[in-house]
């Protein structure tokens, strides 16, 4: 079947074409997919072909779930370069790459791999991965010169990665569609930030909208998005790469992550009984998820009705008038000025979302986190991690929230007077008690 010559398509009746269209998951150099023809993965889970989204009359090459209606597209090849005419042709090009040609046989999309197999074939796998592989050998998952899973669009399927290959610099991240009817790249991206503890950041253009809980490998810190009974999160951070991935616990169930054109991240599962997609979780989920809503050293608590933001204990609004008027952007400053080396210490805060811009080194298990932070004047907070040892923050703390359950314990640097370590000037005490009464 893999070697089906082109002329068979031209000389067989429609019945045969439709029969082949459900049977073929692979194209070889002399075969093409055009018009309503499709590739279907071996177990008939995914289908690849041309589609027009919604009311659009533009044509795209995409992958969707074979037996789910309405059509749910999980990947688009020519997202930047639609066909204006339904006569696109998918083929293996003369250079061995997968190519998409328009009516006048101009290449409008190519897999564009610099290393192509000797006997190239393109195959749609049951995972939804569309791969370019050597036609003569068996399937060797490590050696696809090109695979659609390396070029995610708005959807993560089981086995796909969000993150980066640290050697090649290849980055796997999501981009929203422009609108429901327009799969050209939209404003939103969802990308793994691994400068500190790995966390996934939703941006609109270059503006950060939302930041997931950073993950330190500890079970309790699994980001909310991945914390449910449907999936096993998979996380890797090694010399080769850093990524988040997942698998469905029930391998025959269907679920996916998607960044929507309106700027949210959703985990969506297919319900066999309701025959529809069910949203498991949508993030950001409340105003406390808005990035940095409370300013530096401010903390967000959604269970406080009138004012979700307040300064962390030991801090005071930089501009009280603004903070009281719900303009929290100015943030908070230490109530008692910190003087490094003069008896400072730490106050602990429970059930917190770790602030942004964490810093850690691997294999610091035996380190005294408190002493290490105290001894460096630019260290403003630390946390202990059973798996990593210590996590430190240098520079102002931001994007903190308090959870009513879960969350992490955080130790924040305070002046000695904050910790009752000394009896300092009485004016400071009056400020303290005022703030305490207000709080
Ligand atoms: C493709 O077609 C050409 C010309 O008809 C033929 O020489 C070649 O063997 C075919 N290749 C495959 C892989 O079928
Ligand atoms: C595609 O374009 C060609 C040339 O412009 C035209 O002849 C043909 O009718 C078009 N086909 C469709 C389905 O629009
Ligand atoms: C095919 O693509 C080329 C390059 O984008 C374009 O100039 C040409 O008009 C296209 N042909 C059709 C029929 O759309
Ligand atoms: C293929 O890759 C080259 C080099 O990275 C790039 O210049 C070119 O635009 C790419 N072509 C396509 C069709 O993506
Ligand atoms: C797994 O999922 C399939 C398909 O959704 C369903 O038919 C089956 O009952 C599920 N199995 C278990 C153990 O839940
Ligand atoms: C404090 O920590 C920062 C960040 O790791 C580092 O750049 C700096 O050199 C440290 N300072 C001292 C005095 O160790």
UniProtKB/TrEMBL annotation:
Name it: non-specific serine/threonine protein kinase
Q: Which organism is it from?
A: Tetracentron sinense (Spur-leaf)
Keywords in alphabetical order: Disulfide bond, EGF-like domain, Signal
Domain Bulb-type lectin residue range list: 24-145
Apple domain: from which residue to which, for each copy?
340-415
Occurrences of domain EGF-like (ranges): 284-321
Under Gene3D superfamilies, the record lists:
Bulb-type lectin domain (2.90.10.10)
Signal peptide residues are: 1-23
GO BP field: recognition of pollen
Answer yes or no on keyword Disulfide bond.
yes
Q: What is its EC number?
A: 2.7.11.1
What is the protein's known function?
Involved in sporophytic self-incompatibility system (the inability of flowering plants to achieve self-fertilization).
**Record GO terms (molecular function):** protein serine/threonine kinase activity
Family matches, as Pfam families: B_lectin, PAN_2, S_locus_glycop
Q: Which reaction does it catalyse?
A: L-seryl-[protein] + ATP = O-phospho-L-seryl-[protein] + ADP + H(+); L-threonyl-[protein] + ATP = O-phospho-L-threonyl-[protein] + ADP + H(+)
